[in-house]
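<tokenise_the_fold>
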Amino acid sequence: ATSNGKKDFGELFTLNVESMLKSNVVFQGEEMMNAEKSKDMINSIEEMYIWKLSRCLVNDIYRMMSNCKDYGFRDQIQRAAVSIMNNIAEGLYSGYKSRFIFHLKVTKGSCAEVISMLYLCEDFNHCTKAKRMELQNQIKVISAGCQRLIESLKG
């Protein structure tokens, strides 16, 4: 747990990253999505595993950056993390498969941006190397889930 008593991303989701990257897991429980299933089976963002992971990531980034005095840098990484979560939601609710795919691609771009910025967080002592690697691995799970969903939607 963090100093404020809240669990961080890693504590909430102790995932075997390698197995996640190799699997087709995008949804949790009954809504687990494999390549054969279609977008029609998704009822809400709350059912999407990758959206849940991105929500926890946003909270972790906000906590990690809460004491950063470089407001421009802090704002950029926080906005990029929020973009991951929000583009998944916006794409799902767009009602169009092509728009969903577009937003998932934007999500993957935001994932790359946060992965890159996490190196600077380490360089500027906003996080440890271990924390950077943990967050980057979790972002890779989100990005891989988006890619599998894109492939599934393209049929």
In short: The mean pLDDT is 82. The radius of gyration is 15 Å.
